[in-house]
Amino acid sequence: DSPEIKEEVFRKDDQFLNLLKDVYVESRDPPVRVKDGGGEHLPSKHEEKRLTKLGHLEALDVKKVPKGKISLVEALTLLNNHKLQPQIWTAEKIAAEYSLELKEVNSLLEFFIPFTVLEFPKDTKKAITSQNQKKLT
To answer: At how many degrees (to 10) do helices 102-111 and 72-84 cross?
Structure first.
């Protein structure tokens, strides 16, 4: 808000302008390659795929995923396996089983926790066994 600062900001410095005139930037685009695709649309990068490990949930999800990635059903399955048996389903075993990086598996296990379903015992309600039921009139 002060006028001195505004004046300093908008003032042109001849020394810097002269130095800036000496700067020359040259930019070149890489040569363009023409692909002979034959009219087909093919992916430019070939990804190595792996079959999913879904077991009985196979019909619910995709069949193949790129290596280093997992499907949603696989993610839920491995999170639940780790939750139920953490000594068996360690981060190292999960990384090896699903072709993932250990760092990513550790992050997954740290930040994503599957829901827990709790079933409360049902209250035992006594049925009314009155012999003389009253009729509303």
So the answer is: 70
Q: Where are the domains of the chain?
A: 70-115
pTM for the full model? 0.45
Distance CA(49)–CA(43), nearest Å, equals 14
The gap from C-alpha 124 to its chain's centroid, in whole angstroms, comes to 45
Q: Decide: 94 and 86 in contact? Cβ < 8 Å.
A: no
Overall residue count recorded for the chain in this entry: 137
Give the model's pLDDT for residue 16. Answer: 84
Q: How far apart are CA 33 and CA 107, in angstroms?
A: 40
Which residues fall within 8 angstroms of residue 113, CB to CB, at 6 or more apart? Answer: 79, 83
